[in-house]
Structure formats: C-alpha cells, structure tokens
Amino acid sequence: MVVSLLGIALGVFGLKLMIGAGPSEPVGANELAAAAMTLATIIGVAIWGTPGLRSLAVLVGVASGCAAYVGLELALGDMGVATRDIAFAVPAWPLAAPSFPLEFLPGFLIGALACFVRAMAALTVSQQLADPNWKAPDYKAIRAGTLADGLGCVVAGIVGVLGTNTYAGSVGLAAANGVLARRVGIAAGIGWIVLGLTPRAASVLYAIPAGILGAACFYSATCTTKTGIAMLAQRLVDARRTLIIGSAIVISGLVPDLRGHVDLPSLGQQVMNSPLVVAMLVALALNAVLRLGIPKDASLRWRPGKAGELTEFAETQGRAWGARVDLINRAGNFLEEFAALAPRLVQPGSEAGLALRYDEAGLQIELSWQGERLNIEGSANLDADDGSLQVTLMRHWADEINLSSDDDGRQTLVAYVDDR
Predict the structure, then answer these.
(1) What is the three-class DSSP state of 401?
(2) pLDDT tens across 62-82, in order?
(3) Best exposed site among 184, 300, 334, 390 by fewest CB in 10 Å?
C-alpha cells in the first residue's frame, strides 16, 4: 500500500510540475510544450524503441525536452531569462555550525517517521525488482538500508547541509528501464558526490524547466504505482483488509484539502503535512482494531466426499490472514490431492481432521484420520490406481511431509509449505 501511495504522490507531483499547478511561478507556453515533448518522447521510446534504447527512455526524453525548450526560447523567448539561475561561486569556509532548537523536535520526529516509511517501501520495491522470485521483504537488508539512510542524514546534519532520503522516482526509473546493476548505482553515487563538491553545480540542474522534470517524474511514478499494485495483488484480501487499504488511500488523498479546514494543535498540523504518515497511522489503527480475534490457527472436521470443502476452508483462512496467493494455492493443491486419496484412507463413517497454522514464513498443514496408513515414499506409477500419483503431487506442493501413526490406528500427516 505504501509503495502505491508513493507512486501516486510522485505522479501527482510530476503532473503539477508539468502544468504549473502549485505555489511556483506559472508555466509558460514554451515550458508546457517542452514538457509535453518530453513525456511523448519517453512514452514513444519506451514502447516502440529498440531494447537497448528503452532503458534510456527517460534520459532521451529529458534531453529532447531540453533541446526543444532551448529551441523555443531562442526562437520565441528570452534565453537570458531562461538561464538566469546558472551561476558558479566558491564556497566560503567555515560553514555555519549546526544547531537543533528543541521546538523543532516534534516536526523532526514526524519527518523522520515519514522518511523511514518511504525508505522501507523503496527498499522493498528494489528487492522485488532485483529478484524475479521475490516473495517477502528481506528485513535484514531493509534494516541495513534504513540505517545507512539515517547515518547519511546524521553526517549531513554535522556538516550543515540538507539531509538525504531514498527517492521513489529513482526506484520507478529503475523499474521502467530495467537497469538494476549495482555498478550503475555506484557510478551514479560518485557522480552526485562530485556534483555536490562542485560550487553551484545545482544551479545547472535548476535551469532545467520544472515541467520537463515533472514529465520524467510522472513516467517513473507509473512504474512505482504498478509495482505497488502488483505487491498488493500477491496477497489475499478479505473485507477487513479491503477497508484498511481503501481507507488509507482515500484519506491520504484527502489530507492536502483538510490542512486549512481543520483546527488542530501544532503537532497535529505537522502530522497533516505528510499524507503518507497520516495514511500509515490510519492503516495501523484500523489494522489493530479489525484484526482483533483472528487466530493464527484454524481447524476443521471433514468427511471424505466433499472435495472442495478443504480448499475453500484454506482460502477463507488465507484471506483472513492476508497470506500470499501463491502460498494458499499450493496448500489448496496439496489438500485437493489428499481429498482424492481420503476415501481409501479414512475409516468409513469417520471424519478427518484438518489444522492450519500460519506465520509469515509459511503454512503448516496437519491432517489426522482413523484408518489406513499413507505411503509417502516411492515414485508415481501412472499405470496403477494406487494413489502414488497423488502422493507424488503432494510432495511437489509441500516442502516437507512427515507421517506418524499411533497404536490405535490414528494417522497424522504434517506438511509444511514454505513461503520464503
């Protein structure tokens, strides 16, 4: 959800830059035309360009937009006004010593929380982009990434410059062009360090019209939003989660319009400055309330012959738990094969027991019945109707299977479907 919100916020920001909707100066006709040219070029190259050129779609679009803007300014505008912000100067030392008035602490903590959530979302998307078989976030890598992000802000504060944070547009750009090599990130980092040490180098970047940068942001945002939606689609959603996700998204869009109409104390006003933080707090609060009473264990008494009852029960519980679709599908396939074997295993007139135990690492399935022992070893015999094919498929869908028997003929089959 946070990833989708980041993409939506970035896309809205990019559109505002393109059309000049905001507190900045209104966009002129030349800049608006250049922004349209940039977006059209990016889309054209990304869709119809050669495979090698598609990875450079944003760069080609920005270059073409800048060229179009320069051409329009030379022909119809004032080039001196367009480049008035470009200037170079030698920094004077020593820089001002850092200070931290205590009245800034609440706003600082809120901003830090927003940056932390955004960094977690960006790192999670990066993991998904880098691993085609991605299933769940690697929290160890996320902890390391957020720690590095925080240390960067500490160093920036010590030397008296602006803090740093992850940028959703960069992640979206990587998703759009498919360039994920670590060496590219290292080279980009070195380039930004060199620019940071070059006096007034930022003024050259500021000379690029905001509408052109907005077009690039808008395109990158579409990829970030798509990634967030894909991550949401990997989970089963019930009515509770639908309400949580929908409420957070709607409220995040409403926050900018509420700032001037709601009388809140200073801390509340600072919280309202970040729609992402408000959405996250709403989602956490609703989740804490609506998830009460949902156990991680579920059981069912089942009579052979009702094949679909087992898979329906697993899917219902998966929605309540918010489990991944692939995990529940694999568990459902496992239970479907057992249902096909059950009439020959379960003692006539008796019921079989099903117990599910879920955590973020996987799903444990425990089946118990009174009757014949199941042979879980051996290979499938396609020419014989002895259940060996079903057992082979059960071993395929589950990562681990163990069978135990009691002296009274009670059989217990424990399977584990790993989601890591």
Answers:
(1) strand
(2) 888 888 888 887 777 655 555
(3) 184
